[in-house]
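[Q] Does anyone have a clean structure-token version of this?
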Amino acid sequence: MDEVSDFRDELPSIQEAFPAAAAGLSAYLSALDDLPGLDRRTHELVRLACTVVLRSGPGVQRHAQLAAEFGASWQEVLGVLVLTQPSFGLVPAREMLPFARAGYEAGRQAD
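[A] Here you go.
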């Protein structure tokens, strides 16, 4: 998974630069985890699709990991990447595949 290990986040950490904003953002994101209507597995698969579209490698890895921890199969995770292709093209899904695989494997190991 060279693409994952070579990924470099060049932006300064929000936590370091704006600790109060980071704390607020963390609280907001935590509140989203408890939205009614979707189980947590489905919730993480939706968030995975969003991060694929954004081409956020760390986001894809994190949501693939959480999806696996909440019971998603590799076929479901891979299916999410494929479902982004008609609207956003092959490239984002292809670029995010290594991140999704690394996250999924980490999530399976957490069980």
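[Q] Thanks! Anything notable?
[A] The domain at 37-110 is CATH 1.20.1290.10 (AhpD-like).
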